[in-house]
Design goal:
The chain is mostly beta strands and 86 residues long. It has one domain. Helix content is 0%, strand content 44%. The chain has no helices and seven strands. It has strands spanning 6-13, 21-22, 31-32, 39-46, 53-59, 70-75, 81-85. The two termini are 25 Å apart. The mean pLDDT is 82.
Length: 86
């Protein structure tokens, strides 16, 4: 990871009966919920230099367990990203 880059995680959810989409812009494709039910987690890396999205990934809950959320994120000295989720 380049010095100053930002890795972030969390969740996004629909506020009404719509399928939510999370868009970090830049060269990253939007992340879309699989069902629109509950919340879906995300993990993204932003450039510390320009703030633009370098990559973004979503992880979706099943209907039986509809809530997934990124809870913690860290990087190691080899630039590997470690995610904890619920």
């Amino acid at each position: 990871m380049t010095s100053g880059d930002i890795v972030l995680t969390g969740y996004f959810a629909a506020t009404q009966a719509t399928i939510p989409t999370l868009n970090f812009g830049g060269s990253c494709s939007p992340i879309t919920s699989n069902t629109g039910v509950g919340g879906d987690g995300y993990l993204a890396k932003l450039s510390g230099f320009a703030g633009s999205c370098l990559w973004a990934r979503g992880f979706n809950g099943a209907v039986a367990a509809p809530y997934n959320a990124g809870v913690g994120v860290a990087t190691d000295v080899n630039r590997n990203v470690v995610l904890t989720e619920s």
